[in-house]
Specification:
Radius of gyration: 20 Å
Order of helices and strands: EHHEHEHEEHEEEHHHEEHEEH
Shape: globular
Number of helices: 10
Structural class: alpha/beta
Distance between the termini: 40 Å
Bound molecules: pyridoxal-5'-phosphate
Largest sheet: 7 strands, mixed
Strand content: 5-15%
Oligomer: single chain
């Protein structure tokens, strides 16, 4: 830390992204990227948009917003695009959290939430999950704060049914409830339709996972006009051109290619089912994942030990050091061939008796 670093941020411990090795020798199953390329239409439209890069991007994101509003069945002022969904989550902490409205989220969830809270000078309260990693929504009624729930949750993969999400939204009428649906396309129910009935609900989504566009940085939120207006106030106070031209065009292309999107989501869900069966046969247990990863622990082998051995063999998975999670590894679901290689490597390692 330099002697110039603001006192305001002295306590800030930044988020640690998963490793991004520069050589391609790893089978990368550590950051929940898609194994499939983005839609050909998205790539083609991004290429054409590159011709106009001398011009600023449209700060209102009008073409993409129009396309997405029609696609998701909301009006254009109920949607806001951002530079990845991390950005809209940060905006939500800026807009809706302060001393009188602490952020509230589970003790095991997306690691960025506490970072955003501290960055924005907002207190936060972490609510323990049940023993089996599930969220008890009774703990989220009348919180007096701004609730953040990832659904499906990370890194567990467990999803709450829509009725339970609705109980949380209805149970906090004087606070915003943010439902982070980064993984919703892999088999969970979206709460986006509820914005009709609740003015305190913000649903955030991303093109990073199910639309194979992590490197393009495109996320968005769906919520009431008033919430979207507040988030726009934050956006126009930080970076009005937060979504670049190529990404905007790729986003439109992706939404117009429903077939690629559906086929890719289906393939991930099938590969997930296959992987879970194979893992269980090897002595692993994993909560019922609705995401493009599984969170698995072995009956004998330690989590950290497995992570290191897999890395030695060229397979990268994500390991978390905390006491609660250290027996597990989060494994991204890739193509069937990648999953076969994962299982083959694990079978060898477990034979070697680690
Ligand atoms: C990946 C992820 C995000 C953010 O992804 P972006 O690439 O910034 O859109 C948000 N929430 C959760 C739970 C995630 O896993």
């Amino acid at each position: 830390m330099s002697r110039f670093f603001s006192d305001r941020h002295k306590g800030l411990v930044p988020y640690t992204p998963g490793e991004q090795p520069r050589d391609a020798r790893y089978l990368k199953l550590n950051t929940n990227e898609s194994p499939f390329p983005p839609s050909p239409l998205a790539r083609e439209m991004a290429g054409r948009a590159a011709e106009d890069l001398r011009l600023y991007s449209d700060p209102e994101c009008r073409d993409l917003t129009e396309e997405a509003a029609a696609y998701f069945g909301v009006s254009e002022d109920e949607i806001l695009f951002t530079n990845g969904s991390d950005e809209i989550l940060n905006f939500a902490f800026t807009a809706f959290c302060d001393e009188s409205r602490p952020a509230v989220f589970p003790d095991v969830t997306y690691g960025f939430y506490p970072v955003f809270a501290v960055l924005n000078g907002a207190p936060y309260r972490e609510i323990p999950l049940r023993e089996d990693f599930s969220v008890d929504v009774n703990d989220y009624i009348g919180t007096g704060g701004t609730v953040f729930l990832a659904n499906p949750n990370a890194p567990t993969g467990l999803a709450l049914p829509l009725s339970e999400i609705e109980r949380v939204v209805a149970g906090n009428p004087d606070g915003v409830v943010v439902v982070d649906e980064a993984y919703v396309d892999f088999g969970a129910e979206s709460a986006a339709g509820l914005i009709r009935w609740y003015d305190n609900l913000l649903v955030t989504r991303t093109f990073s996972k199910s639309r194979s566009m992590a490197g393009a940085r495109l996320g968005f939120g769906i919520g009431s006009r008033e919430l979207i207006r507040d988030l726009n106030t934050v956006k126009y106070s930080t970076n009005p051109y937060n979504v670049n031209r190529m990404t905007m065009a790729a986003g439109i292309g992706s939404l117009r290619d429903e077939e690629t999107f559906r086929a890719n989501c289906r393939a991930i869900m099938e590969n997930r089912a296959w992987t879970v069966r194979e893992l269980e046969a090897l002595g692993f247990r994993a909560p019922d994942s609705r995401a493009n990863f599984v969170f698995a622990r072995h009956e004998r082998a330690g989590g950290r030990e497995l992570y290191l051995k897999l890395k030695e063999k060229g397979v990268l998975v994500r390991h978390f050091e905390s006491e609660q999670l250290k027996d597990y590894n989060r494994i991204t679901i890739g193509s069937r061939e990648q999953m076969r290689r994962l299982i083959g490597t694990l079978r060898e390692l477990l034979k070697e008796e680690i």
